Amino acid sequence: MAHFRLRVERPGETGALPIEDVNTLRKGDTVVYVPGDPVPGEDLDKADVVLLVAPKEGQELQVMERKPALGRQRWELGYDAAVVALAYGPAGLRAERVRDMVKKDPELVVQLAEYGERTTQVETLLAAMSRPSTDAQTMEAALRGFATSGAGGTRLDRNATLDQQTLTMLRAVNPALAAYDPLSPEPRVRWQQSAGLAAAVAGLFLGNTVAVAATSASLFLNLRSVAFPRTEFRSALRRDAALCAKRESGSGVRFAYLWARRLPEAKTPALALRAPLHLAAGLPARVEFAEPAAAWSQVRQWRWVDAAGGSAPVGGTVQGGTLQLAKPPAPGRYALAGDWEWQELRAPQAVTVHELPDLAAIRLTEASADALEAGRGRVRLRLHGADLQFVTKVELESAADALAERVAARFVPLAGPGLELELEVDTDRLRPGAHRVWLTRADGATHAFAAMVHGPAPQLTGGPWRIRQDGSAQRIRLTGERLEQVERWEFAGGTVQWQRERQEVEVRLHPQAQPGTSWELQAWVGGRNLPVKWPNAVQVLPPAVTVQSVQRAAPPAGSVELREKEVDAGGPVSVALRLSGALAEAPRAGQCAKLERADRLSDREWFVVVRPEGADGCPVTLEVEPGGAVVELGALVRRPEVLGFALSGEAAGPSQYWGELTGNGLERIVRVGWNEREGVAVTELPANVEGRQRLRLAVPWPSPAPHAPLFIWLRGETAGRRTNARY
Question: pLDDT confidence of 105, banded at 50, 70, 90?
Fold first, then answer.
């Protein structure tokens, strides 16, 4: 019907922008009408155009000067505008009649604003439908915008397919589309067939005719006549600079057409991403902005800008405040940019597009492969070998048990390039044996590699190993669990010969191994990549210090004999030691003793006092140094205390008379006699009298000599002990 373009010039800005690319119209802006080539046979000599501008608030609708449609025309705005409309009259227009229309209908500003918004929505939708090359995302975005407006009371199901949404939209526009005749000469018939968005827009001006021409994807709508007698306004849509409406023939009736656009009026947004973005080449993606803004859909000509300044268009649409990408650009580093009116917006955060990694290069780290032990609960593992940011799933599958379920690993996907990915695997759901680790990439590709789920590792007890640096080999018998799995033992300070059958090792230190150092012990186990380790498990001792002499203080005399190699439990034992070399630390009490004092007399001499403790017969010892020489002081003995002895004239049997011992600890005496070989059994227990024990016993008679000493046998002894008791 008519071809023209509306462009906007702004003071201080270079060039003019199409009206569709402008988000605000300000005071001082100039709207430029640029006519196109007329359709052949079209007589436009009488055609006029009038620009109508709806203000933002508080002012009347402004009807600009009427101008011929054949020439390039300009209108400068007197104030900021919310809606701009163009009235096109093929047979001419009278601007004063339009002004009268505005005065008669004060609600026209509101109606014109809503009409402009609807027109923009429908033009976007129809443009998407009419282009054969429209991609699915662009079409879906157009449908979303149409649906969220709620036109005609119909909203689209976001979960439905694109075809289903399109069908729903068409039925909303006209449920009787199949039976609809767009050429019906009767307006009443067309009115009855209308519905959906057509009815909503028609109601804007209470028009009496609604029509949809499905084949041309155009919408036609009659508006009520308000400005001119025998002149009927029709709504019009612009497609590719062409004003589209259905021509109507009527005797003496002149038709005029109205096109409008509502300005978004959004503020210039600050284009910034939530974080530097990393995308996979060839895969759809979503770009999230740092700040939510409804204005993102108003940004035009989204593009990728590379380091050299070259640009490529963005294949995607804005949906729900995010930029949905159908396909990122070629691998490289880019900045996301777009145009907002005359201004370029550019995000400061980089967008990097990566090639998808080769899954075949990914493996568990050696430490992780060894840590994969059944029954250890949740275990942290690591993958490495390639960029892992596009790995979306990791699962473990038994290679031997076809009925076993796959065990999924938990992990947090990487937000950028990373050569290691930490996983958490529940090993309680795994059994020892061969497994496959399945990897899934963002594009759905999968790959598996072999991995072994181990049983429990060997455990070593009884350490550390203390080895003397004296050039000799030392044999050590090992204790622990699953030691038969160990193939060899190693430590940095020497060599180890492993005799697995006898569970023994022969250890020899290197000459440079210094006393006082400790070494980590390593056990190499079959099927594992790394050794099992025990820190500080081998300790190097200096050559052993020998005892050259021991001088022991005389024990207290007591009333009962103390034999050689015995220690009385009644008091401390003092010892002077002379050694072959210096000690790093003081001697220590060994068995059945407690160290009370240790004084260094010289580099090789020590004075030591220990107090015996323990049961009778326990060996009392001194340990010169850890693992070194041991000084045996004697077996611990608790001697009775004999305070008195009396013999009565009462016979206890043939050649025996009753006697009585007085003292303490007499319960230990089991026999008595006049020598260490022969004795009479004690049959009674001592009685406590005035804080002393009294023991009645039978004594052989006669004694071997006047004032002969009495001998006693303690429990468990085979020879008698001499006492100071005499008769």
Answer: low
